[in-house]
């Protein structure tokens, strides 16, 4: 780790001023930034500790009826919050399928969304093909976004609240990460010194609470990044799908929303054929970035599975093995 | 610049002068405070050997800068046994042979202690499957998994029984 | 799941052996009091961190030594520009366990992760940053990676000095006689030991004497090796390893990083501590080399083997050799009239492989036991029936009887507990309530019952207690407990009257904690030392007219519970303390040693055996696999401590799960680096991967294998376990996995 200065500002204003200084980086849970610093990828000159800033550590309903998760709320606290369990159970399942209990106890909502791809640790090496993208990749970047949380957030149309010198602004999560031409990884839409202060879940997204699942394939049963993951949520009405929300993880530089597949689901009666059609649409445009064509087929199948599980209904309780197809009691049987 | 970090460390108030903000909680414990029971297995939050309890929550000490912890209450493996009497989790690890080389053991035990005492316990209940998932952040390479899980379940039951007895 | 393993009567070897004692070091390990090497920080300690090569082949062009030196707290930067002096060339393979290592003697890079500079600092933080600031540049060459990197060659030896090929009978005749021939290929990847405790050393010099606190599986054997490189007498070196946080074969070999720290401490005149970072454990400290194995099995019409051919291609390094002796696994298990095994090797630009838990047997038996399942299917026989049909009553190559072999009993007991009898022959026919495909698989486990050489000392003390000493190392197998149990029995004392000293090179040589031979070897030496001490004590007593034992010389004496009794009259006895006191001795020392006579191998074949049964659930659409339960039944001679033996056998089975489903080092073809070289990328099983595990042991009375009748269990159960999982996956899905670890894409079709 390089030498750095450390400050712990008492107010948001102080933090923003410090964060605008050259070489400054905000420090929250530290589980990603410290890792990057340890391998020498990040070398901030100033760490601005934002963990104790007032107003960032609560989950609360906004005046508009949306749910605001302060950026400093720890992942484990989000997953166990009663309002999350009741309104956005898919978020809890996604969070609990990620990392370990120890890391979830430290990592914050904001830090999770902002974490850099595993490829950032690779010191210029191309990752193993199986860890690379099959959607939206470029010659310069085939790395994948590592977050589970963000995939579920993307499906729920979450907005990010960002504080800067000019005040607060809101950005849809889906627009937050972009991949400029020639960039080696996706870049968050943050100006210098801006601080992510909250993740906001629109009230409308709670309508899918009864039919929302996050499903994740990984190469050991727990404590592993997603090979492929899917957040699938359905708004059901009279036995038909009123609207659908679908996002994929592990396949692109950002959580991958699938408007065409969602449109195909809207108005349909749930069933294997419609799910298969949606899965095909979800992977439209997918192409191997190496010896990883299998991920396209796996993703297709996982979309169909996730939709089937979502249609069967959100389980009353997060499964023993969250998001795992190998859970002993994984919702209703959905196999073909 | 020297930072002062006030900790309640294993029940004792400590004011620690830190000349380098790079020091992690793990290296502070091991290299500067001679509390070497907490182990370094990966230094990257990937193995759980350094698990300690900070303000009631189990965390990886390697992924926490000491300077950020001013005012925190920290419990390490050295702070578990009281008056020479092992914590029920420690005793259960010995009884169920939930250890072999012993290197991951302090982390496994701290993880289990926090889990039993904290908010997770209610979610897990006595379901071994949920417990295995909850303990998956603590890697054991010797293969003591069966003994570890049995030990935690057993300790949890004993602690609950003892609590009931106390209440009665 | 937690049923106790019954202790058969004969297993008792005195009052202690056979008892399921809890670990005597358990208290220290659960309280954090157990001191591993890196827990030592003598006054004035400096911290060392090395820079690791980011390429696998080429030369270091530049290092920014000035930047490193300028970093506050950096004390020293060692580079090849001023190579540290060694008394012997580290290329010199003067010893069977001497592997070439890299110690800044030149600017060449021959594997990724090789030390290319060492930075020493007043603090760990300073040294770490100093090493980063070196920012090396390279002249890189394209590394050779993979089985086909270049033409294979025929190695002179495999493993540690084993013959690279062996055969009996006429292979082509065996194939010609077969009703059908199975030809099959399996590949296993590079795997890394990844003990939880990283390699470390704390080196303290005092003149020309040095104390090394380090994890070392063979402290006494290592002493002359360090001595040769450091140019000091072996007795000037003290290696202390009271606890070792997992070795698995990687901590018996002198390596560059640890040597550099020792040299830095000498140069700077202060204690130096070096701890490998986790990512640095993927290079200079050994691994299991990748193998590609081709098997050919001839079957007669009844499912009997007519021929068994096993060829292995093993990856070794560019500059040294450890050839994974995988094919040799086919020499000892199945009685085909024609058997042939052979090895080839290919050089890659990787760190030199090393023995890793069951070297040879783990990948070799995995391939063989999968091939045997394929043969069983071809013969239309149940996998268990096929193995019984091809059961070796005597050793397949030599015809010698096994000293003991309860494999049949293991197969029967394991099958019964597992519920194997209901297994349908056809694959892809069983499902669980959720619709997941279920499969049941079997793998036979086998490992040689090794025996090395060891010495021990037992000192009876005036207060009736004893001190027992041997250098042996506890790396989790339970030496602190099991060896003390044996020692106590040798002395006729209860274990609480024994002070057991171990884990230090100034004690009698217990040999290497490895090869699954430590308990048998060191235990035999300890037993002999106790017997020697008691014999001396009995001689004093029986010649002393004042002793109740006077004149018992002819009929003899028996030692138990701290007293010597007349064999012909149990009521006449005297305590050790009284005998010593009257003779005016403060202590009485017995010496013991143990080795297996070479002729023993001409009379018997010595092996442990077992049968591992696994059930796997596989998602039919997605191909994700989970082992849902495993049963292993093992026969390994006398069990000294059933509790610890069970744990070791479980550990090996879990390694089998990792072998089958998780472990693989992925190399970057451009740089040759291990790109998943950390514990987030290199997967080993976590708790959620290990749902249900049952270990059973089958009693074996073995009067031939050694004095104690003890075989080893440290490596036995990984052999067989990986194949059991793979065979279960094949049974579940109808897809035969040929590459390890088994991946989803293989199973989704």
Automatic annotation (TrEMBL), chain A:
This is Xanthine dehydrogenase YagS FAD-binding subunit. Pfam families: CO_deh_flav_C, FAD_binding_5. Keywords: FAD, Flavoprotein. It comes from Albimonas donghaensis. Residues 1-206 form the FAD-binding PCMH-type domain. The lineage of its organism: Bacteria, Pseudomonadati, Pseudomonadota, Alphaproteobacteria, Rhodobacterales. SUPFAM superfamilies: CO dehydrogenase flavoprotein C-terminal domain-like, FAD-binding/transporter-associated domain-like. One of its GO terms (molecular function) is FAD binding. It comes from the Bacteria. InterPro entries: CO_DH_flav_C (IPR005107), CO_DH_flav_C_dom_sf (IPR036683), Diverse_Substr_Oxidored (IPR051312), FAD-bd_PCMH (IPR016166), FAD-bd_PCMH-like_sf (IPR036318), FAD-bd_PCMH_sub1 (IPR016167), FAD-bd_PCMH_sub2 (IPR016169), Mopterin_DH_FAD-bd (IPR002346).
Automatic annotation (TrEMBL), chain B:
InterPro entries: 2Fe-2S-bd (IPR002888), 2Fe-2S-bd_dom_sf (IPR036884), 2Fe-2S_ferredoxin-like_sf (IPR036010), 2Fe-2S_ferredoxin-type (IPR001041), 2Fe2S_fd_BS (IPR006058), Aldehyde_Oxdr_Iron-Sulfur (IPR052914), Beta-grasp_dom_sf (IPR012675). Transmembrane segments: none annotated. One of its GO terms (molecular function) is 2 iron, 2 sulfur cluster binding. The keyword Ribosomal protein does not apply. SUPFAM superfamilies: 2Fe-2S ferredoxin-like, CO dehydrogenase ISP C-domain like. Keywords: 2Fe-2S, Iron, Iron-sulfur, Metal-binding, Oxidoreductase. Pfam families: Fer2, Fer2_2. Residues 3-80 form the 2Fe-2S ferredoxin-type domain. It comes from the Bacteria. This is Xanthine dehydrogenase YagT iron-sulfur-binding subunit.
From TrEMBL, chain C:
Residues 1-27, 545-571 are annotated as: Disordered. GO terms for molecular function: iron ion binding; oxidoreductase activity. It comes from the Bacteria. Residues 31-142 form the Aldehyde oxidase/xanthine dehydrogenase a/b hammerhead domain. InterPro entries: Ald_Oxase/Xan_DH_a/b, Ald_Oxase/Xan_DH_a/b_sf, Ald_Oxase/xanthine_DH-like, AldOxase/xan_DH_MoCoBD1, AldOxase/xan_DH_MoCoBD2, AldOxase/xan_DH_Mopterin-bd_sf. Pfam families: Ald_Xan_dh_C, MoCoBD_1, MoCoBD_2. Residues 560-571 have a biased composition (Basic and acidic residues). This is Xanthine dehydrogenase YagR molybdenum-binding subunit. It comes from Albimonas donghaensis.
């Amino acid at each position: 780790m390089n030498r750095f200065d450390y400050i712990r500002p008492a107010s948001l204003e102080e933090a923003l001023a410090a964060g605008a200084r050259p070489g400054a980086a905000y420090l929250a849970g530290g589980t990603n930034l410290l890792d990057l610093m340890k391998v020498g990828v990040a070398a901030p000159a100033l760490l601005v500790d934002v963990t104790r800033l007032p107003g960032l550590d609560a989950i609360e309903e906004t005046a508009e009826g949306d749910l605001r998760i302060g950026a400093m709320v720890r992942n484990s606290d989000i997953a166990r919050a009663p309002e999350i369990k009741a309104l956005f159970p898919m978020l809890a399942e996604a969070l609990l399928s990620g990392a370990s209990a120890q890391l979830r106890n430290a990592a914050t909502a904001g830090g999770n969304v902002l974490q850099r791809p595993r490829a950032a640790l690779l010191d210029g090496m191309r990752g193993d093909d199986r860890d690379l993208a099959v959607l939206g990749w470029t010659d310069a970047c085939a790395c994948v976004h590592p977050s589970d949380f963000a995939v579920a957030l993307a499906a729920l149309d979450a907005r990010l609240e960002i504080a800067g010198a000019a005040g607060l602004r809101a950005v849809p999560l889906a627009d937050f990460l972009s991949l400029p031409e020639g960039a080696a990884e996706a870049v968050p839409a943050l100006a210098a010194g801006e601080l992510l202060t909250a993740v906001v879940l629109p009230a409308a997204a709670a309508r899918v609470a009864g039919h929302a699942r996050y499903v994740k394939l990984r190469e050991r049963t727990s404590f592993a990044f997603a090979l492929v993951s899917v957040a699938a949520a359905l708004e059901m009405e009279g036995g038909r799908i009123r609207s659908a929300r679908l996002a994929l993880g592990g396949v692109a530089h950002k959580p991958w929303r699938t408007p065409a597949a969602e449109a195909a689901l809207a108005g349909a009666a749930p069933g294997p054929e419609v799910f298969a059609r949606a899965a095909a649409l979800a992977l439209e445009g997918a192409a191997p970035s190496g010896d990883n064509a299998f991920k396209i087929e796996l993703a297709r199948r996982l979309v169909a599975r996730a939709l089937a599980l979502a249609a069967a209904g959100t389980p009353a309780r997060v499964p023993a093995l969250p998001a795992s197809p190998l859970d002993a009691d994984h919702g209703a049987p959905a196999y073909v | 610049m020297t930072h002062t970090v006030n900790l309640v460390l294993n029940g004792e108030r400590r004011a620690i002068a830190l000349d380098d903000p790079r020091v992690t909680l793990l290296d502070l414990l091991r290299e500067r405070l001679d509390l070497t029971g907490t182990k370094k297995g990966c230094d990257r939050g990937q193995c759980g050997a350094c698990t300690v309890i900070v303000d009631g929550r189990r965390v990886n000490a390697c992924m926490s800068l000491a300077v950020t912890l001013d005012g925190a209450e920290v419990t390490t493996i050295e702070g578990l046994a009281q008056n020479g009497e092992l914590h029920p989790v420690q005793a259960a690890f010995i009884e169920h042979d939930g250890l072999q080389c012993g290197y991951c053991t302090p982390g496994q035990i701290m993880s289990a202690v926090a889990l039993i005492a904290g908010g997770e316990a209610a979610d897990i209940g006595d379901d071994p499957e949920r417990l295995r998932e909850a303990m998956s952040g603590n890697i054991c390479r010797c293969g003591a998994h069966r003994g570890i899980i049995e030990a935690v379940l057993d300790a949890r039951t004993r602690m609950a029984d003892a609590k009931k007895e106390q209440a009665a | 799941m937690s049923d106790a393993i019954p202790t058969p009567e004969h297993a008792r070897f005195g009052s202690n052996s056979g008892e399921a004692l809890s670990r005597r070091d358990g208290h220290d390990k659960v309280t954090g009091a157990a001191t591993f090497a890196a827990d030592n920080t003598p006054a004035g300690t400096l911290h060392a961190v090395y820079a690791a090569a980011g390429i696998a082949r080429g030369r270091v062009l530049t290092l920014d030594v000035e930047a490193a030196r300028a970093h506050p707290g950096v004390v020293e930067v060692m580079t090849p520009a001023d190579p540290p002096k060694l008394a012997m060339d580290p290329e010199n393979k003067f010893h069977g366990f001497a592997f070439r290592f890299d110690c800044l003697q030149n600017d060449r890079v021959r594997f990724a992760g090789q030390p290319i500079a060492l930075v020493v600092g007043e603090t760990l933080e300073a040294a770490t940053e100093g090493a980063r600031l070196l920012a090396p540049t390279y002249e890189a060459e394209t590394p050779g990676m993979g089985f086909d990197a270049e033409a294979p060659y025929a190695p002179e030896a495999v493993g540690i000095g084993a013959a690279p090929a062996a055969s009996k009978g006429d292979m082509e005749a065996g194939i010609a006689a077969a009703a059908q021939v199975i030809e099959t290929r399996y590949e296993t990847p590079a795997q890394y030991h990844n003990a939880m405790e990283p390699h470390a050393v704390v080196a303290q010099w005092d003149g020309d004497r040095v104390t090394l606190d380090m994890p070392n599986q063979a402290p006494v054997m290592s002493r002359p090796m360090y001595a040769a490189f450091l140019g000091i007498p072996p007795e000037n070196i003290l290696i202390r390893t009271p606890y070792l946080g997992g070795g698995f074969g990687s901590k018996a070999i002198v390596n560059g990083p640890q040597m550099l720290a020792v040299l830095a401490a000498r140069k700077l005149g202060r204690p130096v501590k070096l701890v490998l970072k986790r990512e640095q454990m993927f290079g200079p400290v050994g691994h299991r080399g990748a193998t590609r194995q081709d098997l050919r099995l001839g079957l007669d019409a009844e499912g009997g083997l007519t021929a068994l051919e096993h060829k292995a291609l093993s990856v070794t390094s560019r500059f040294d050799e450890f050839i994974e002796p995988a094919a040799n696994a086919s020499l000892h298990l199945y009685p085909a009239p024609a058997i042939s095994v052979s090895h080839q090797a290919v050089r890659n630009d990787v760190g030199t492989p090393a023995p890793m838990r069951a070297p040879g047997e783990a990948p070799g038996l995995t391939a063989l036991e999968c091939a045997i399942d394929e043969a069983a299917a071809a013969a239309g026989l149940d996998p268990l029936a096929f193995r019984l049909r091809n059961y070796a009553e005597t050793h397949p190559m030599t015809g010698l009887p096994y000293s003991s072999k309860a494999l049949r009993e293991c197969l029967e007991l394991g099958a019964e507990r597992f519920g194997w009898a209901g297994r349908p022959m056809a694959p892809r026919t069983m499902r669980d309530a959720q619709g997941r495909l279920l499969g049941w698989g079997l793998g036979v486990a086998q490992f040689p019952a090794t025996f090395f050489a060891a010495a021990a000392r037992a000192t009876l003390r005036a207060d009736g207690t004893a001190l027992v000493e041997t250098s042996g190392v506890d790396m989790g197998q339970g030496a602190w407990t099991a060896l003390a149990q044996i020692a106590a029995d040798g002395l006729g004392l209860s274990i609480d009257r024994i002070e057991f000293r171990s884990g230090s090179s100034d004690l009698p040589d217990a040999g290497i904690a490895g090869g699954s031979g430590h308990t048998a070897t060191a235990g035999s030496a300890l037993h002999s030392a106790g017997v020697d001490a008691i014999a001396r004590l009995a001689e004093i007593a029986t010649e002393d007219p004042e002793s109740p034992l006077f004149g018992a010389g002819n009929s003899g004496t028996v030692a138990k519970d701290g007293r010597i009794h007349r064999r012909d009259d149990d009521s006449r006895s005297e305590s050790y303390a009284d005998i010593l006191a009257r003779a005016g001795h403060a202590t009485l020392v017995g010496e013991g040693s143990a080795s297996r006579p070479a002729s023993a191998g001409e009379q018997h074949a010595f092996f442990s055996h077992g049968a591992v049964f696994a059930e796997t659930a596989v998602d039919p659409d997605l191909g994700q696999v989970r082992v849902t339960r495993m049963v292993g039944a093992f026969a390994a001679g006398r069990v000294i401590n059933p509790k610890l033996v069970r744990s070791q056998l479980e550990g090996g089975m879990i390694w089998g799960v990792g072998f089958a489903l998780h472990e693989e080092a992925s190399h970057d073809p451009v740089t040759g680096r291990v790109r998943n070289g950390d514990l987030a990328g290199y997967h080993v099983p976590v708790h959620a991967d290990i749902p249900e595990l049952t270990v059973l042991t089958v009693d074996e009375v073995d009067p031939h294998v050694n004095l104690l009748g003890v075989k080893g269990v440290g490596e036995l159960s990984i052999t067989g376990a990986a194949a059991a999982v793979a065979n279960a996956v094949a049974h579940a899905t109808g897809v035969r996995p040929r590459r390890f670890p088994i991946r989803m894409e293989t199973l989704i079709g």
